Amino acid sequence: MTVSSDAARTYSRANGEKFLQELFEMLRIPSLSGDPAYAGDIRRMAEWLDQHMRGLGLDNVQIMPTAGHPVVYGEWLGAGPDKLTVLVYGHYDVVPAAVEDGWTSDPFEPVVRDGKIYARGATDDKGQMFIHVKALEAYLKTEGAAPVNVKFLLEGEEEVSSPNLTPFIEEHLDLLKADVCVISDTSMSHIDAPSITHSLRGMTYLEIEVEGPKEDLHSGLWGGAAHNPALVLVEMLGKLYNADNTIAVPGFYDDVVSLTDEERAMIAKTDLSEADYKAVTGVPAVWGDARFTIRERLSARPTLDINGMWSGWTGPGPKTIIPQKASAKLSSRLVANQDPHKIFTLLKDYLESIAPPTVKLSVRLLTTGRAALIPFDIPEMQAAARAYEQGWGHTPVFTRGGGSIPVVADIASLLHIPVVMMGYGLDSDGLHSPNEHYSIEMFARGIETAIVYLEELAQLSR
Amino acid sequence: MTVSSDAARTYSRANGEKFLQELFEMLRIPSLSGDPAYAGDIRRMAEWLDQHMRGLGLDNVQIMPTAGHPVVYGEWLGAGPDKLTVLVYGHYDVVPAAVEDGWTSDPFEPVVRDGKIYARGATDDKGQMFIHVKALEAYLKTEGAAPVNVKFLLEGEEEVSSPNLTPFIEEHLDLLKADVCVISDTSMSHIDAPSITHSLRGMTYLEIEVEGPKEDLHSGLWGGAAHNPALVLVEMLGKLYNADNTIAVPGFYDDVVSLTDEERAMIAKTDLSEADYKAVTGVPAVWGDARFTIRERLSARPTLDINGMWSGWTGPGPKTIIPQKASAKLSSRLVANQDPHKIFTLLKDYLESIAPPTVKLSVRLLTTGRAALIPFDIPEMQAAARAYEQGWGHTPVFTRGGGSIPVVADIASLLHIPVVMMGYGLDSDGLHSPNEHYSIEMFARGIETAIVYLEELAQLSR
Question: Which residues are CB-contacts of B448 (< 8 A; sequence separation ≥ 6)?
Fold first, then answer.
């Protein structure tokens, strides 16, 4: 049986408002994975997805436990064994958001302004993940069948670097068996310039703490003979970079694979100017390693950032203490072939080597993720390019992403299948920032593209 | 009429438990001056003092408005114009405290453990201030009169550097007219080693903010070309000190008056060893300008401390952002003859000179206070020494304090009277720290010493 996409596309256009209201229900659930206080909301979100997929007629729908937050699984295998099976990966968890961070409206009460949905998770990843659910619904509600078999693997710990997903995949290799994996959790620079991400950066995320006195000290009584832990922290972190904006940690760049001229030429297709970068981010001036273009710095070069830092009195007014301790969160975006654990050791050794004897230093690994690099000349990638041409209306470019989706490397290596990253977001969606948003137009185009992709995959031989 | 201290001293011993319960009432009021959320508690504290002093029979008791928190005033002038008038200064406001900072018990529910009262403000300054109120009560309840006239000036903004006290004094010079001012808001190293502080450090307190992008950025999408504001802050603050632990700000030491050999010899009487300093503070090693002894660093040399610092994500787990901004609170303890406003300008100029063009820097003055230095060979000081000998049981030493009570310099210069700092606290009381406490024994000895001091002052001619 050959299933055409025509009726499904018509259905998706007719049901845009219904899809939106369903997405809003998801966005109202503050499914923060990094904070134990929200465990109940994570659970509620998983139950919502479970109920929703059951309602669409998927089979074998279940909330599957892990050592952390659960995976929601569902499948439709009605296309039969002669057809390909596509595994859709998405995540239903989000990063924190609070009105006081600068949100114009409640981050967990979605509102539409200028055709954009404002809510935490709108683009990362609830909106993008839902596109695939709606694409399958469009087929099932019109043709009663989809062109290929579809499995959903929806996790709740992506924003904390998926600590339990690798063991989950290892335990369920048969259940997750597929021919190709599709993930929509990346973005494009402009709505008419879609892209397929074939490379992602990895990550090493750590937390450091510098302890001095046994408690906060009165800076008048004791100041002058105690090495202030906040001062020690800034003196240490002030040595992370060299004057040329390269990372000063010995050995940090040792395993970085150099870019070829061909790769640099391809990256140049999506380069952005200093003016563009400044306009989107609002920085007063562009910064970085001047030997590389901006896009190279953002995607093909490793970074080392301070993500958070705290010490002493941070409330209003003055408080005259020498803080007992000072802490920072640091993370490094990695590229092939940097090993996240080796990088952690290098960072830890360096920090320990520059810590003075006036404090106690502790360095703790929070999360890691490997970088990923997928070839883009394979049939599953080329089928995705055709799906964009028909469903989105534009030919995509193949790009490197700067972010980290550790599961991409894991799925590719454990299930031995290509991972196709069809990002339906915009670079300017503000993910992880206040006022994260997602364009309704892109949500709709994404559903049509996802519909066409299933049809295109049906043309490929198993 | 000559009033003897005998009956008053007996009364004070008999009423220790009553005095303690009254102090507890004060300690239960969280009169934080630095946080607008506690304005109601500040008010409640002022009203408590107003009612209490009226109840003791003081005259002209009133809550007097300022541009900030009010002053509570009260007087007893029954000794007549032939006798000296002593102005007691104290403050009823406290610095913040929260159980999660490491308090063993609620900071605003005083409890006694091992003879010590644990509560925020127990030693700084509610307990010490109350000593003078109870000394006057002891005279009035026994003799019906005190040996000298007494005025109370109790303020509510000491912990935010008394921004409105100077204008208040200037407006009420007649009301506050006195022959000597006594302040109990300092401490001694050991209960049997009382001291009279004749020098205090001044202060310049500022807040700085480094802003980069217009909002928090996703470190994967944008990391590599944005100069992380937290990184900029640590790189800047990492340049506050030279390698020899002297302050790197140009001109910072220019106005510091050098210590004479005689002054160094006097300071040496109260020096403390590295082992002592480490034991009390818990630091792994002593730090500072090696050209000076520990006590000199703590009292006769200026400092520059980071009191607080914050940027980006500080909650549990990882969050992969480049923070929009990074902030710090800095304060400098000053010595004679450093001008707090000149020091602010030097700090601001230096920070601006080292800020890179990749960020926007703002430097804001929070508070200032002048250093103070009072001669110790005057009769009012010597009378205080005799009061310790009789009331406390030990001869005091004259010391330099490391903390800042800006009002000391103001009272001395505006009212043209000596200020005698009779500190009834212990260095290890943990003021401004979790588990601040005050010894009941010291509270009792303080009341007796204050009783004797009024008697001693009555011997001095006007």
Answer: B9, B12, B13, B391, B392
Q: Is residue A120 within 8 angstroms of chain B, CB to CB?
A: no
Contact status of A358 with chain B (Cβ, < 8 Å): yes
Q: What is the pLDDT of residue A151?
A: 98
- Residue B35 near chain A (CB below 8 Å): yes
Residue A368 φ then ψ, to 5°: -135, 160
Which residues of chain B fall below pLDDT 50?
none
Candidates A300, A308, A93, A288; CA nearest to A206 is A308
Query: Residue A93 catalytic?
Result: yes
C-beta atoms surrounding B421 within 10 Å: 26
Instruction: Give the model's pLDDT for residue A52.
Output: 98
Q: Is the pLDDT of residue A406 over 80?
A: no
pTM for the complete prediction?
0.75
For residue B206, the cross-strand partners are: B330, B365
CA neighbor of B23 nearest in space, from B96, B123, B127, B108: B127
> Tokens 């830092």 belong to which residue?
A309
Kindly report, residue by residue over A96-107, the tens digit of the pLDDT: 999 999 999 999
Partner A contacted by B298 (CB < 8 A)? yes
Q: In angstroms, rounded to a whole number, what is the distance separating the alpha carbons of residues A424 and A124?
A: 10
Give me the residues paired with residue A74 across strands: A152
For residue A1, name the pLDDT band (cuts at 50, 70, 90). Answer: low
* One-character DSSP codes across B435-459: T-EEEHHHHHHHHHHHHHHHHHHTT
Which tokens in the block code for residue B75?
Answer: 């007087």
Both tokens of A380, joined, read 């599953």
Question: Above pLDDT 70, what percent of chain A?
Answer: 100
Length of chain B: 462
Which of B99, B287, B354, B429 to mutate to probe the A interface, most A CBs <10 Å?
Answer: B287
Closest approach of B164 to chain A, Cα-based (Å): 15
Judge: A402–B312 Cβ closer than 8 Å, yes or no: no
CA–CA dist B104, B126 (Å, integer): 20
| Dihedral sign computed on CA atoms, order B270, B274, B277, B279 | negative
Q: Which residue has the tokens 């009460």?
A: A109
ipTM over 0.90: no
Give Cβ neighbours of residue A267 (< 8 Å, ≥ 6 apart): A259, A293, A295, A296, A299, A300, A399, A400
- What's the rounded Cα separation, in Å, for the pair B131 and B141? 15
Backbone angles phi, psi at B330, to 5 degrees: -125, 145
Chain A residues with CB inside 8 Å of B401's CB?
220-221
Rounded distance, CA B201 to CA A220, Å?
Answer: 8
